[in-house]
Design brief:
It is found in: Cytoplasm. With 129 residues, the chain is of the alpha+beta class. It has helices at residues 58-66, 75-90; strands at 11-13, 22-33, 40-50, 54-56, 94-104, 107-116.
């Protein structure tokens, strides 16, 4: 197999570091294992962030997500761990990671974790008529 799962995240220089802009990434095929039963859990992971000096490189992100396929992880822990890993990799101004987990036993779980740089002030929203 030419590609292997890896938790090593790569980055590249933000091409517009002088501007606040949002990068949104949707990963609809995330899988991990239930740490209690060993059965697969499926989720869509949504990442939204305002980069500072670096952006997350997408192929390394795909390999990172793949690394969870055989790992037992509670929804709350895996979502917060992802946020910690992504922040450590690219040090964004703002980042939100949302894990929307598929139904299990009649229950849907959504976990949202956020990071804000201490010196970042978000721009004021613009309302158009």
């Amino acid at each position: 197999m030419p590609s292997q799962p890896s938790k090593e995240l790569e980055t590249f220089d933000n091409p517009m570091p002088e501007r606040d802009y949002t990068i949104r990434i949707d990963i609809p095929e995330f899988t991990c294992l239930c740490p209690k039963t060993g059965q697969p859990d499926f989720a869509t992971i949504h990442i939204a962030y305002v980069a500072d000096k670096a952006c997350i490189e997408l192929k390394s992100l795909k390999m990172y997500m793949w690394a969870y396929r055989e790992e037992g992880a509670f929804h709350e822990k895996v979502t917060n761990t992802m946020l910690d890993d992504f922040v450590a990799a690219c040090n964004p101004r703002f980042m939100r990671v949302t894990g929307k987990f598929n139904v299990r036993g009649g229950i849907y779980t959504t976990v949202i974790a956020e990071h804000r740089a201490a010196d970042w002030n978000p721009p004021q929203p613009v309302t158009l008529p």
